[in-house]
Amino acid sequence: MVPKTDTQTSQEGRRRKSAKPTLRTIAELTGLAVTTVSRALADDPLINIDTRRRIHQAAADVGYMPDRAAQRLKTGRTNVVGVLLDPHEEILGFGTSLMLGLTQALAGTPYHLIVMPSFVKSSNVEAVDYIIRNNLADGLIFTRTEPLDPRVRLLIEKDFPFVTHGRSEFSTPHPYVDFDSFAFAYEAARRLLAKGRSRLTIILPPRNLTFSQHMRHGFMTAIREAGASFEISEDLDLDSPAGAIRNHFRERAGLNDPPDGLICPGEVSALAALAGLGEAGLTLGREFDMVAKQTSRLLSDIQPGIETIYEDLTAAGEQLGKLLLRRIGGEAANTLQILQPPQPSFGTTAD
């Protein structure tokens, strides 16, 4: 059989897009054997590189996708990465940014994503167990970890590849990507103290989450070093509605000794607190100052007076994806741990 030219292959490929393409489709288009096509699509180094490129191009022209059921039977793998994603409405663009980074990490690999919602009031152990028992993915990523997270315990026991966005306190190491919340709170407090503020407050994440402990520790370390006054409301946390945060700070401003330095771990809480204090007649930069964690351009564009520290969620998503691929490949868990340092962006827009 005489191999067809690239032009003939491309023209025939466009005509055949209406039918579901198979290996045989590509073989007929290229004039090559089905076994050769299969090996080329698997990037068998014994197949000439030019032949591999031509077959990959033909597959792309006809929209060929491998039969996942057949692949699973043959290799035991799904070529799927599962993501349990918390909407995390307080952090603007949280899910979108993480997914963008994950997509970049998986580009050019055979892996695809399935996304399942993760709800704030549930640890989603059942969802994790369902994925494992039904072999729905080769690896799993999830967010908002707890110190003794039951999802982490289950996945370690099952020896199932996973990476968390956040840390836990298990003695057995596991892969993670985390933002250094201790450093964020510590540096934010030091910045406010350097501006002459003497009574600080911070909005913390929910107490059951690991990064709440890290953030509290960083804040209190800076407070103790400076001998400054502070208060932490037990009625508010990062998941509180924006209206509740606004009302709290409006009412607190009318009482004795209100805080003059605020730390907010997200843009929504920062804007809500700013609104409440503004309604009470207080002005940013005069009666109080604020440092907030920024994950978008919102604060820098709308309120440049709020000083910010940047968390790169897209980079975190890409790191999560790359670590998971390495874990699926058999790399040891204790080599797959990344702690992202805060990126100061005081008074500027983070790139």
From TrEMBL:
Protein name: LacI family DNA-binding transcriptional regulator
Domain of life: Bacteria
Sorted UniProt keywords: DNA-binding, Transcription, Transcription regulation
Record bears the keyword Transcription regulation: yes
Biased composition (Polar residues): 1-11
One function term, GO molecular function aspect: DNA-binding transcription factor activity
PROSITE patterns in UniProt: HTH_LACI_2
Region (Disordered), start-end ranges: 1-21
Pfam families: LacI, Peripla_BP_3
Domain HTH lacI-type: 21-75
Gene3D superfamilies referenced in this protein's UniProt entry, alphabetically: 3.40.50.2300, lambda repressor-like DNA-binding domains (1.10.260.40)
SMART domains noted in UniProt: HTH_LACI
